[in-house]
């Protein structure tokens, strides 16, 4: 009897740890979404930076603790005209005992409104699931609570975004996790600690022919938590080398750099200090990204 109680205690502790770490993940999302891969935060940005744009991202705690989160994300964009693009966003992450998978397909439309300005609209639709991998549980038998948790299976989900861009200005707004926002089932448990919206504004300033600086402000919503304000800038040299820094109202900061080779291959490295609420558990996260860009968007 004592052994069974002990096993259930450890199992519950692992689930709670996963939920707590997931809250930290929402406070500090993938750093690439701010400047290097804006499709991560807004489906309307799919296909705005080339005909084919493929990115593989991996993030892990710098000083790892037990059951620390691991993030693995793939994004692919294909602009089949200069007005339309499709995308694929696959997120396979893990926090504690909680595994998370999300597969989203995207359609984006880019409508010219002036010589250099465009309005962008994007919709991502797909499936998401949270589950506990039974192989991670070192116990005899399985608690029925875990079975019920896993039996929820995949659910339909989506994001909707809009944006305006010209040669200098970028303004964005995204509604995230539409399943939670639109579900009217009285038996539906919406939970907390998920992103609800993302808004951002940036303005690129040409210092000279080689150097540009792009200040950016971001305002994000998290269910059950205070909304987050972020601000910083990206410094680019010849559109081949970038460094950026952002400060967050959660009293932490994110720093990153990116290098593009031959206008096709891209590598990024980003370090994020942990939010003050969980900084005692970790020294922060390190994120690396590999990208491939092919051609420029076609024009018809």
Description:
- With 300 residues, this protein is mostly beta strands.
- The protein has one domain (2-294): monomeric porin ompg (Porin, Beta Barrel), CATH 2.40.160.40.
- Helices cover 13% and strands 49% of the residues.
- The chain has three helices and 15 strands.
- Strands 1-2-3-4-5-6-7-8-10-11-12-13-14-15 form a 14-stranded antiparallel β-barrel.
- β12 (241-248) and β13 (252-261) form a beta hairpin.
- The longest helix is centred in the N-terminal third of the chain and has 26 residues, at 2-27.
- It starts with a helix and ends in a 6-residue tail after the last strand.
- Mean pLDDT is 83; it is low at 1-24 and 186-190.
Descriptive terms for the model:
3 helices; 13% helix; 14-stranded antiparallel beta barrel; 49% strand; Porin; 300 residues; globular; disordered N terminus; mainly beta
What is the topological layout?
Elements: H1 2-27, E1 52-61, E2 70-78, E3 84-95, E4 98-112, E5 118-132, H2 144-150, E6 155-165, E7 169-175, H3 178-182, E8 195-203, E9 205-206, E10 211-222, E11 228-237, E12 241-248, E13 252-261, E14 265-272, E15 285-294
């Amino acid at each position: 009897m004592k052994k069974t109680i002990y096993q259930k205690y450890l199992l519950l502790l692992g689930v709670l740890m996963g939920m707590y770490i997931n809250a930290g993940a929402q406070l500090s999302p993938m750093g690439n979404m701010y400047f290097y891969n804006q499709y991560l935060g807004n489906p309307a940005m799919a296909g705005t930076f080339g005909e084919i744009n493929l990115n593989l991202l991996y993030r892990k705690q710098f000083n790892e603790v037990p059951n620390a989160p691991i993030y693995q994300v793939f994004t692919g964009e294909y602009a089949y005209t200069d007005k339309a693009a499709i995308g694929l966003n696959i997120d396979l992450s893990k926090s504690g005992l909680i595994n998370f998978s999300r597969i989203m397909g995207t359609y984006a439309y880019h409508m010219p409104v002036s010589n250099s300005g465009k309005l962008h609209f994007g919709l991502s639709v797909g499936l998401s699931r949270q589950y506990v991998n039974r192989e991670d549980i070192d116990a005899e038998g399985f608690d029925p609570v875990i079975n019920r948790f896993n039996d929820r299976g995949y659910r339909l989900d989506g994001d909707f975004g809009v944006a305006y861009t010209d040669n200098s200005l970028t303004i964005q707004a995204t509604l995230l996790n539409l399943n939670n926002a639109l579900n009217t089932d009285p038996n539906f448990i919406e939970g907390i600690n998920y992103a609800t919206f993302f808004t951002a504004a940036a303005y690129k300033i040409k210092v000279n022919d080689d150097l540009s600086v792009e200040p950016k402000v971001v305002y994000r919503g998290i269910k059950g938590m205070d909304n987050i304000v972020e601000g910083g800038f990206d410094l680019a040299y010849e559109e081949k080398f970038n460094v950026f820094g952002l400060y967050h109202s959660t009293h932490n900061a994110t720093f990153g750099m990116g290098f593009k080779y031959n206008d096709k291959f891209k590598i990024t490295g980003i370090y994020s200090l942990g939010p003050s609420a969980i900084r005692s558990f970790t020294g922060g996260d390190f994120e690396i990204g590999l990208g491939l860009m092919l051609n420029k968007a076609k024009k018809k």
